Amino acid sequence: MTNPLLTAVDLPSYAALQPEHVEPAIDALLAANRAAIEQLLATDIEPTWANLIEPLEELSDRLNRAWSPVNHLHAVQDSAALRAAYNACLPKLSVYHTELGQHPGLYAAYQRIASGPEYAQLNPAQCKVIDDALRDFRLSGVALPPEQRTRYKDIQQELASLSAKFSENVLDATQAWTKHLTDEVQLAGLPESACALARQTAGQRGLDGWLLTLELPSYLPVLNYADDRELRRELYSAYCTRASDQGPNAGQWDNGPIMERILALRHELAQLLGFRDYSECSLATKMADSPEQVLDFLNDLAHRAKPQAQREFAELQDFAREQFNAPELEAWDIGYYAEKLRQHRYQLSQEELRPYFPITRVLPGLFTVAERLFGVTIRPLEGVETWYPDVLVYEIVDSAGTRRGRFYLDLYTRPHKRGGAWMDGCLARRRLGDAVRTPAAYLVCNFTPPVGDDPALLTHSEVLTMFHEFGHGLHHLLTTVDYLPIAGIHGVEWDAVELPSQFLENWCWSREALDELAGHYQTGEPLPDELYQRMLAARHFQAGLFLARQLEFGLFDFRLHRDYDPAHGARILEILQAVRQQVAVIFPPDWNRFPNAFTHIFSGGYAAGYYSYKWAEVLSADAFSAFEEYGIFDAATGARFRESILEVGGSRPALASFVEFRGREPRIEPLLRLSGIVA
Question: Which of 187, 206, 240 finishes a domain?
């Protein structure tokens, strides 16, 4: 039987890939790679870019091309058999990568290239590959004594398994809970789109009536619109206690012990490498210079945001009491009365906007925005195999007609698919002799699917999400860097990765851009100017509360890793409470277990790095201000952004790329203005 993971193909064959292929393929590739590396180092020939770096890149690429579709399917089309195969391979991959990072022969070979005569002849991007590799060797514990190297390897192996288990627990807990309704009275207040989705979900499972789930397209409308307070409380309780010791499924899929263990292992790993704590270790590959700089940044924003957040919450409480005679607001009341206040103040609801954002208009509009900004053309690709029938495939070509990349678009929520939205690499750009292999990306969202014969209708918030992930995609796909470790998003400091994604969101507020991507799904009527003006007026509604919440996440994550004390354990809820006392305005009930589903930091790569969203937003807001100066679709400014930011990938420090584009270092004022935070 031919194993599709070992077959050289252009793009993955998802139909042919079966769970039983996974472990044999990974075992074979790991064995072949290990043998090839030893063969590379067995010669006395002086190591060079051509005889060492390029062959190593080929080995890495071969392994990544086999693992990437497996990792992707585990996120979007999970099954018990695939999960078992995935988890069987995780420790093997962890051990392999740790071995490479601790390989004294490889480390010595890279050092010889860095200190030898060839280094001066290499281009700056090649030097960056070597410099990053030497840094990563050190961060992998290559210089540690043998016993500590072994311990490092064991820690990394265990962390890989724990992170996967954390994510699986969140997925299982999310999908285990449903609420079946047969009395339409309980749906009072819900928009028709939410009712239709609930009806469709029930029908798909052979039920009458309506079925509510904890997937966001089902959950959020209940919290924001349902008149039935008890229904809101029930869904809030189920959602905010997922994978914990509380709530309707208390103790099942509980991530509490996993979080404790992850934090202990991260701290131990950091100290093995000579860092005070994991926050210092995390910053070794980021723009921020020190934990103190990060904390000062977050605390400064908190100081600016909290007074405004307090005023906004007081306004909400007064409104709910005066207009609805509401009792003291609980956590499950906030979204409901906030939506009432938004409608009262601006005569605007997300549901009123939804008919103007059919996916059939948003997608072509998004592509037109990218085309006008960056001089590319985006067109559909037919006949490309996908993992689900409604997945779309496109290619990006430049003005010369050269393909720059391809991407898959998986838009809608469904069972066995991880929640949230993300971009991930399928293939990275790479030079192969005289040819260049173009990159490919996965763009994944969890929007409300089409209901009946109508196209999917997006909220404006979902349009923002679409633009955000596409910004990540352009960063990966438009790179002109030919070296795998620094092509596209690879090698970019983590606290700069969000720059292109957050940057592109700004076009969702531009009248000129909205004319491209908004039109009534039935009539084609453009977004009325009167409705647009109300949308703009409401843009910064409760901006202080939103920023305070984001800073709560960032400070909690950073302090969780900065303040870890082995003698006292993780103190997760204690630290969370301390952060809330500092920055929060809204306090959830004691039984809320938000950390237990905080996948960003426990399984998503943002450990001691959630601050990156706000850090990168300083860069993105300042970058966008250039377009405010020269014109929202100014071709020259768009070309500069493409050339200075998108195309260079990780071939140089992110700050250097920003300075080249903006002509100076970043300023915080554009972020405060675009975020609606008053001085």
Answer: 240
Average pLDDT over residues 660-665: 97
Boundaries of domain holding 218: 177-240
Does 344 share its domain with 305? yes
C-alpha dihedral sign at 373, 379, 384, 389: positive
Contact at 8 Å (CB) between 557 and 615?
no
Which amino acid appears at position 313 of this protein?
F
* Structural tokens at position 247: 């709530």
What's the per-residue H, E or C state across 643-676?
HHHHCCCCCCCHHHHHHHHHCCCCCCHHHHHHCC
Same domain, 17 and 115: yes
Q: Report the half-sphere exposure of 251 (CA within 13 A, side-chain side).
A: 0
Interval 478-514: pLDDT, tens: 999 999 999 999 999 999 999 999 999 999 999 999 9
Give SS3 for 145.
Answer: coil
For 74, 158, 181, 553, the CA distances from 164, given in Å and listed in that order, are: 10, 10, 34, 21
The CATH number assigned to the domain holding 323 equals 1.10.1370.10
d(CA 645, CA 650): 9
Residue 655 Cα distances to 297, 490, 647, 650, angstroms? 17, 16, 15, 11
pTM: 0.95
Span between the terminal Cα atoms of the chain, in Å:
67
Q: Is the pLDDT of residue 177 over 80?
A: yes
Rounded Cα gap, residues 33 and 326, in angstroms: 65
* DSSP labels, 89-135: HHHHHHHHHHHHHT-HHHHHHHHHHHHSGGGGGS-HHHHHHHHHHHH
- The two three-digit tokens of residue 667, written as one number: 């300023």
Q: Is 542 helix (H, G, I), strand (E, B) or coil?
A: coil
Look at residue 75 and give its three-state secondary structure. Answer: helix
Between vectors from CA 79 to CA 75 and to CA 83, what angle results, nearest 5°?
Answer: 70
Instruction: Report the distance separating Cα 646 and Cα 458, nearest Å.
Output: 27
**Which residue is associated with the tokens 């009395």?**
183
Sheet of 392-398, strands arranged across: 376-380, 392-398, 403-412, 440-447, 422-427
pLDDT at 238 over 70: yes
Residue pair 226/187 in contact by the 8 Å Cβ criterion: yes
The beta strand positions in 120-185, using DSSP E, are 178-181
Instruction: Give how many domains the chain has, as a whole number.
Output: 4
Q: Can you tell me the distance from the alpha carbon of 302 to that of 580, in angstroms, rounded to the nearest whole number?
A: 11
Residues 362, 367: Cα–Cα separation, whole Å:
9
Tell the residue number behind the tokens 């809030």, with chain if given.
236
Q: Give the β-pairing of 440-447 and 403-412.
A: parallel
User: Strand 435-437 relative to strand 430-432: parallel, antiparallel, unpaired?
Assistant: antiparallel
CA–CA dist 646, 492 (Å, integer): 11
Give pLDDT, residue 643.
Answer: 98
- State the CATH number of the domain containing residue 405: 1.10.1370.40
Residue 431: Cβ-neighbour burial (10 angstroms; 0-12, 13-18, 19+): middle
Q: Which of 569, 590, 610 is the last residue of a domain?
A: 610
Per DSSP, the three-state class of 474 is helix
Residues 6+ apart with CB under 8 A from 29: 6, 62, 63, 66
| Alpha helix stretches (DSSP H) within 357-432 | 359-374
Looking at the annotation, which residues are catalytic?
A: 469
Q: Is residue 487 domain-shared with residue 448, that is, in the same domain?
A: yes
Q: How far apart are CA 649 and CA 501, in angstroms?
A: 14
pLDDT digits (tens, 9 = 90+) for 545-572: 999 999 999 999 999 999 999 999 999 9
SS3 at position 415: coil
Confidence class for position 9, pLDDT limits 50, 70, 90: confident
Please give the torsion angle defined by the CA atoms of residues 62, 68, 69 and 70, in that order, rounded to the nearest 10 degrees. Answer: 100
